[in-house]
Amino acid sequence: MQGSNFSLPDVVECERLTLFPMSEEELWEALGEGQDCFPESVLSPVIRRAFRSKISKMKKMPKELHPWFTYWRIVKKSGENIGIIGSKGLPGEDGMVELGYAMAREFRRNGYMAEALLAFLDWLYECPFCTGARLRILPSNFPSLKTARSCGFIQAGQEDIYFIYQYNF
What is the reported pTM? Predict the structure, then answer.
């Protein structure tokens, strides 16, 4: 990536949603008590730990790399924050990047996560050194498995207790 002369969009638009990368400050705000920037069902203990981990990593990275290490807010056109999506860092040597996401319970089963995931894949596709994406999904997480499959991910194996799903450009 160093020495590259390309730039990726800092906002991703799709039919019903817009994706915005969160700054360190926005991640901290989301973790704050009494904050209502996300429905509480998005900010599970696992996601809260992930926010703290992302903040820690972002502090060590140049700002131009932050979109690869943060979560992106999934925002309905009405302005409601309904979920998050993001990569867990830069693509590895194989060009693959691992993704994670969460959707508020009250907005599930409406196709929002599939729409956001496809839009985020479009963003990744614009990066010349990214060849695809991976997801680690618990076998019991049927909604996430359905979303991955509907977006063209294929099961590529199993690692520990997770199914590995892969999407190649």
Answer: 0.93
Cβ atoms 136, 155 nearer than 8 A: no
Select the CATH number that applies to the domain covering 12-131 from these four: 3.30.70.1350, 3.40.630.30, 3.20.20.140, 3.40.50.300: 3.40.630.30
| Residue corresponding to tokens 């360190």 | 24
Per-residue confidence of the chain (169 residues) as pLDDT tens digits? 444 556 788 999 999 999 999 999 999 999 986 567 899 899 999 999 999 999 999 999 999 999 999 999 999 999 999 999 999 999 999 999 999 999 999 999 999 999 999 999 999 999 999 999 999 999 999 999 999 999 999 999 999 999 999 999 9
At residue 76, the 3 state secondary structure works out as strand
Report yes or no: 56 and 152 within 8 Å, Cβ to Cβ.
Answer: no
